[in-house]
Amino acid sequence: MANRHYYATSDLEEDLALKLALEASLADAGSAAVGDAPRPSARGSSAQHPAHGSNSYPAPYSGSGNGAVQQPPCGYPVLPVQQQHYPGSSQHPQQQHPRLPPQSTPAAGGRPQQQPQHQQHQPAVGRPQQPPQQPHAQESSSSNGAAKQPFWQKPLKLLDSAVQKMAADTGTQCGGCGKWLGMTSGYVRALDRQWHPQCFRCAGCHQPLTLDGGANTFAVGHDQLPYHEACHKQLFHPVCSVCGHFIPEGPSGHTEWREHPFWRLKQCPSHYADSTVSCCSCGRLQPQADEWASLQDGRHLCLECLDTLVVDSKDAQPLYDEILSFFAHMGMPHPYKAPLLLVEGPVLDEYAHKEGRQQDAEHAPMFSVRGLCVAHVYTSIPSVVRAAGQGLGFGAAPVSSIATRMPRLQQHCSVSALLVMYGLPRLLLGSIVAHELMHAYLRMRHVTGLPLQAEEGLCQLVAMLWLDSQDYWAKQQQQGAYQQRLLSYLGYQIRTDTSEVYGDGFRIAMEKFQMRGLKALVEHVIAHGAWPSWSA
Asked: How far is Cα 278 from Cα 285, in angstroms, rounded to an integer?
C-alpha cells in the first residue's frame, strides 16, 4: 500500500534514570515549598519565625486592608490564613479579634477614672501574651467573594508547569495530550513525534492505533492525521461510481482511475472498454445497480434526464414557442415560423448530407449532429445566352440556358423546417432549437456565405444566452437540484469546447456581445460578413 506508515515502540530504560532524578528533584522542591509554608496557631495568630538565614523566613508584616500580602526577603509569598481545617492538624483555627487597649472614662470631677481591675484584659494563664493581631488578608478578601486556594496547591502547580516546560524543551512531550511522557514503560514514535500508546489514536474511529493487532502500521490522510488502514480506505480511497467497489491498485502500487471533468465521478478505467453505456444527455456512465431507459435507436437516458423527456413534435411545440418569444425579446423576431420536427437519427443524417453539413461534423459539438436548419438558398438563376457569332435569323444556332450566379446581397433564402433528434430532455432540446433558430434567422434575412466561425459562434452564443435564462425554470422543478446541475453541464460544454469553429467562435462572440450587446453584434456581422474590431 502506497500510504502505509510504521510506528516504533521503545521502553524508557535508557533515560529512565535521568527522568527519575529530575522528577525527584522537582518533587523535593515542591515538598520543601509546602513544608516551609507558615501555619497559624490555634488562635489564628501569626507565629514567630526564625531569622533570614534559616530554612524558613522572617515573620511577615501584617496584610493591608485590601488583602495584599508583602513579599518576604527570601522570595516566598506570605499565604493568608484560611478559615478551614489544615491537613495533618486536629485543631481548628478560630477567629481572633484584635485586642483593644484599656479605656478610661472621665469621672464627675473631670479626672479620668480607671476601669475596674477585673475588666482589664489579662493574658491567659499558662499562655504567652500574644501581640495585637491585625485583620487578616483573608477577611478583607472574603468580602468580595473571591475564593482563595489552599497553600499547598500553588507549589504543586509550579511543579506541574516545570514538568511541562521540561517536556517541551527535551522533546519528551506527547503528540496527543501534550503532556510529559512520564514514567511509562513504552511510547510510540510516529510522524516525527512521540506519543503515549493510548494517545496515538485513529482520526476516523478515535480508537488507539496500537490496538490494531500489533501490525505497527497506519495510514496518513490528506489532513496529515493518522488512521487505521481500514478507516483510511473507507474515508479516502476512491470508489467507482459504476461498480461501487474500491478502485483497485495497479501493478505499481498506485490507484488509477478516470474522472468525468464536470460531474467529478471516478470510474475504473476498465468500464470505458466494456459494455457500460452512457447517458446521451448528461454523458455519465450507468451504475450497475441502476436501470436506465433505452430508446429505439440504441441510445440510453438516465432516470434524471428521463424526467423532462420531450418525445415527439407535438410535445415540443410549447418549448418552440417559448424560444421564439426569447428571440423577439432580444430584438430579433423571425419573419415567419418554420415548422419544428423531431426526427430519428438516420433522417437527420440524410438531410445533413443534402445540406452539406457532414464536412464539419467531426469538429462540431452536439448541435451539428442533433439539429439541422433545412433551408433552400437561391444562389443562381438560369438565363438564356445565344451562341457566340450566331445571328438570330432562320438557320441560326439555338440559344442556350446558363446559370447566372446572384450577388450575395441579392440571394433569396427560404427555411423549410427545423429538424432535431427526438428523445432529448427539455434543456438539451431547447439549447439545440435556439442554436438552429439562429441559423434560421440569418437565412430569413437572406444572409449566406458568412465565415463558418462567425455564423456558428453566433449560434452558440444564442444557445448559451437561452440556457442562462432557464435558471428560474430549473429551480421550480421537482428535481431542481439536478436540473440546475444539468443546466450548468450544458453551459460547461459550450464554454470548454476546443474546436476552432464552435469553441473559438463562441468565445469571440461572447467577448463582442459583452461590449455592445447581441443585436449590435448580429447586425455588424450581417453587414460586413466578419467579426467587428471593437475594443474594450
From this structure: 4
